[in-house]
Specification:
Blueprint: E1 6-10, H1 15-31, E2 34-41, H2 43-47, H3 55-73, E3 80-87, H4 90-101, E4 105-109, H5 115-121, H6 124-131, E5 136-139
Length: 140
């Protein structure tokens, strides 16, 4: 059995996200893996403020995510890679998507939050590690 046949990258447009993508690309080349790149649009975080955001803000978030995905897929030449934009709570969506596509590795970037902020906010990478049934590689 081949290791890492399907790799899921949770991408967020950050520098850490780009590093995670490049690491996933290196692994994909080494193991001839298929790569799935997703960016999660967390609309609920907008509604959590109690103020209804203008639909233009939500549309912009989706448009930016689609542009991000198109740009990062282009950074994986010669790799069987597909991208998708999905909605929801990022850690849960990443874990669910990994199950859906049968990924045997999830790669995410570390946010590098200070200890205090991490205690208050948590981080997507920490939550993915805790929720996932498949190995997770957190790239700093």
């Amino acid at each position: 059995m081949k290791m890492f046949q399907k790799i899921l990258v949770g991408y967020d447009g950050s520098e850490n996200g780009k590093r995670a993508l490049l690491v996933a690309g290196d692994l994909a080349r080494k193991f001839s893996s298929k790569v799935f790149v997703i960016e999660v649009v967390d609309e609920n975080s907008l509604y959590a403020t109690g103020i209804l955001p203008p639909s233009s803000i939500v549309e912009e978030m989706w448009k930016k995510a689609k542009t991000d995905i198109d740009q990062v897929i282009a950074l994986l030449p010669g790799i069987d890679a597909t991208g998708d934009v999905v909605s929801g709570y990022p850690p849960s969506v990443i874990v669910e998507y990994a199950l859906k596509v049968g990924a045997d590795l999830i790669v995410v970037g570390s946010r590098g939050l200070s200890t205090f902020k991490r205690i208050l906010l948590g981080s997507v990478s920490t939550a993915v590690v805790q929720e996932s049934k498949v190995p997770v590689l957190v790239v700093k």
